[in-house]
Amino acid sequence: MVEAQTWTTRRMSNPRLDTSTTDQVLDIPPTPPGELRNSFGSNPNNLSPTLLTALIISSWYLSNIGVLLLNKYLLSFYGYRFPIFLTMLHMLSCAAYSYASINFLELVPLQHIHSKKQFLKIFALSAIFCFSVVCGNTSLRYLPVSFNQAIGATTPFFTAIFAFLITCKKETGEVYLALLPVVFGIVVASNSEPLFHLFGFLVCVGSTAGRALKSVVQGILLTSEAEKLHSMNLLLYMAPLAAMILLPFTLYIEGNVLALTIEKAKGDPFIVFLLLGNATVAYLVNLTNFLVTKHTSALTLQVLGNAKAAVAAVVSVLIFRNPVTVMGMAGFGITIMGVVLYSEAKKRSKVTTH
């Protein structure tokens, strides 16, 4: 971390290109210094730091797993087959809640877009973000959450590929070697997945690749000191742009979805609760991501993210009762092990470089 750089002016993206993210989550900066951390979101109830951190991590797990399960329930079991419109609702929710969090709750200082060039860069990131989230939500129509999470764990593999193709960034042989079990695990899991669906698999891979591409492109576009935005501010600007991008697609592909939703709500008001709750939890994923890193570190978030994929897979199997095989679980385990090895290899390569 550059000493002259203050936390409140950092852009939301961690310059490292090895961070694996979850669906609908923006990358976040490293933990700020203690004195700055205490100035944002102080502990009003005087909870012990350990208890507060445990509550925040629990909230992060619940929101991440919750949005996955809600998406799966809506798109597969409830019969609400409008993944693009659902993603647009998520973006509108993130825009509204981000505005309230920054302007009223003052979780972080408000930062402004300073130029047309900066706006166009944020717009480009919004488009990639849209592609990733829509593909991820669409895949849940066809794949169980457990398999979806297994594929999502391969994000480091795609990040390394895009970093090499776009920035010509080369990793050490140890780092590339660690990616082999990541890919091998998915091959094993795919061959033994009872509910394998080719289209669902392809769009899920597209979602994972989109997340990786966004991380790499973000590291290139928002590089100057004047353009760096905190993760909460970047979400404030990206979310409404993403909703605007998605609007024509949902109208063209999914038809008059708003009228269909209103008509469905007249016969079953529970759909309103599901959609509002789903959109709110989608924002909480980003908020708790920020809070976990604020109270722990970006590295802790990465470790928790690796464990989250396994927890989400287990919870989804228990709730939705989708069939699993021993080979499928073994493949998932190999992939997670590869991600852990990749993270360790990246850390060692950075220590060697410096």
TrEMBL record:
GO molecular function: antiporter activity
Pfam families the UniProt entry points to: TPT
Start-end of Polar residues biased regions: 1-24
Domain of life of the native organism: Eukaryota
Keyword terms, alphabetized: Membrane, Transmembrane, Transmembrane helix
Entry's localization field: Membrane
Every Sugar phosphate transporter domain range: 54-343
Region (Disordered): 1-25
Single biological process term from Gene Ontology: transmembrane transport
Membrane protein topology class: Multi-pass membrane protein
GO CC, alphabetical: Golgi apparatus; membrane
Residue intervals passing through the bilayer: 51-70, 82-107, 119-140, 146-166, 173-189, 195-213, 234-253, 273-292, 299-320, 326-343
InterPro entries assigned: EmrE-like, Sugar_P_trans_dom, TPT_transporter
PANTHER family (alphabetical): SOLUTE CARRIER FAMILY 35
Protein name: Sugar phosphate transporter domain-containing protein
Species this protein is from: Glycine max
Taxonomic placement: Eukaryota, Viridiplantae, Streptophyta, Embryophyta, Tracheophyta
Encoding gene, per UniProt annotation: LOC100813464
